Amino acid sequence: MIFSRDTAIIAVCIVCALVAAQFQPSKSSVEGVLPALSKAVAQSVEGGTGQQYELREVLAKIAQYYNAEPINPRVDSVWKLIPGLNGVRLDIPATLAAAKQNSAQIPLIFQQIPPSISLNDYVAEPIYRGNPQKRQMALMINVAWGTEYIPQILSILRQNGVRATFFLDGSWAKKNPEVAKSIVLAGMEIGSHAYNHPMMSRLSREQMINQLTKTNEAIFHATGQHITLFAPPAGDFNNLVVQVAAGMKMKTILWTLDTIDWRKPSPTVIVSRIVKRRTPGALVLMHPTEPTVQALPEMIRSLKQDGYQLVTVSELLSSVRPVPKTLAEAQVALSKSGKL
């Protein structure tokens, strides 16, 4: 049997990728092998119909790995409301067409298929985590006192390409509008942490509404942002709190993992508390403290090294299923899993 030159290149590169995956190399070594495969596939696209068949076979493996059915939100006995997840389908014809336009960096065209039930169909349930099938986590930073550590935290997040969600106390936002605005200008998400750190479950309905309304007004005045997320102070809430927040178009957000950084532990302890207990879909509670600043770079590095995307709370709760954007990105993931 006679093989074309492009077929031989692809075969050799696949073998290299599989051998690399077998010995569990570092991310950099895997990514060093796979560009040759991407280049060979790109050459096959340019080579004509026969070579496009070879690309179609590669795409079929990617589709088999990533295609999934939609998952509806559900209420768990422990974790309460767990968000749903879109189904996805790799559109192979559309991807082949896109490859002809950009053979050097072949984009993958996925279709996102929403679940039949939306997270918004549940109006009186708190949220402690994202969907466990999303390899993402969200940093949620509750701010009710001080400003001295905010600039350092923002700088670390920006340097590492991470967007977090800051839940602001309304009285803090009123006193520190410029700092609140700087958080938004840094690309971060903003949520409500009530007005003056009350125990929400002890308030009347009118007092709850007042707390949330004053906070939303203070945040809007400082940042121009409309608030859709509410983190109750000290995690204190009851059903009425959730209902009142929902009536104001806000989801009640708790946490999966707690740094307990307000007790000022060592940075090593903070990192260990999160990295050792990391889990897909986790919401990580933090505060602007000195040990938090010191722990943040290593925490981010460790989580990213383990393949976690660090996103905002809204991104984590959305039903959008993360998928690779390019053929090369998919090949890295499949080679690590041994599926390529």
UniProtKB/TrEMBL annotation:
One of its GO terms (biological process) is carbohydrate metabolic process. Gene3D superfamilies: Glycoside hydrolase/deacetylase. Pfam families: Polysacc_deac_1. Transmembrane segments: none annotated. GO terms for cellular component: membrane. PROSITE patterns: NODB. Residues 135-311 form the NodB homology domain. InterPro entries: Glyco_hydro/deAcase_b/a-brl, NODB_dom, Polysacc_deacetylase_ArnD. GO terms for molecular function: hydrolase activity, acting on carbon-nitrogen (but not peptide) bonds. PANTHER family: CHITOOLIGOSACCHARIDE DEACETYLASE, GLYCOSYL TRANSFERASE-RELATED. This is NodB homology domain-containing protein. It comes from Sulfoacidibacillus thermotolerans (Acidibacillus sulfuroxidans). The lineage of its organism: Bacteria, Bacillati, Bacillota, Bacilli, Bacillales.
